[in-house]
Amino acid sequence: MECKDKNCPIHGNLKIRGRILEGVVISDKMRNSVVVKRELLEYIPKYERYAKKSSKITAHNPPCLNAKLGDNVKIAECRPISKTKSFVVIEVI
Q1: Measuring CA to CA, which of 24, 42, 76, 85 is 20 to 30 A from 33?
Q2: Residues contacting residue 5 through CB under 8 Å, at least 6 positions apart
Q3: Predicted confidence (pLDDT) at residue 19 exceeds the cutoff of 90
Q4: Rounded CA gap, 28 and 70, in Å?
């Protein structure tokens, strides 16, 4: 399969820079996009406990990688692709 996506970090012209994060795909219903959920632990000094937090990040999903629902993926920061997408999937783990 040949990738003709100009926003593909491997076959296209999109440069990656900044943060590289890992998470789980929780939605793949959008065309060429996925929603990635990250689980975080935040320490609260007052109670000397950890609180679970999560964040959702919308990322570009190139057709050559084609991440599906439930996949663990590695995403990298890039220039803004759209109003909400500033990350791109670089690897399906």
Answers
A1: 42
A2: 11, 12, 32, 62, 63, 64
A3: yes
A4: 9
- Dihedral pair phi/psi, residue 88, rounded to 5°: -135, 145
Q: What is the pTM of this model?
A: 0.90
CA 78 to chain CA mean position, Å: 11
Domain residue ranges in the chain: 16-92
Rounded to whole angstroms, the Cα distance separating 12 from 36 reads 22
As a whole number of angstroms, the distance between CA 67 and CA 44 comes to: 35
The domain defined by 16-92 folds into: OB fold (Dihydrolipoamide Acetyltransferase, E2P) (2.40.50)
* Residue 54, token pair as written in the block: 């999560």
Task: Match 């900044």 to its residue by tokens.
Answer: 18
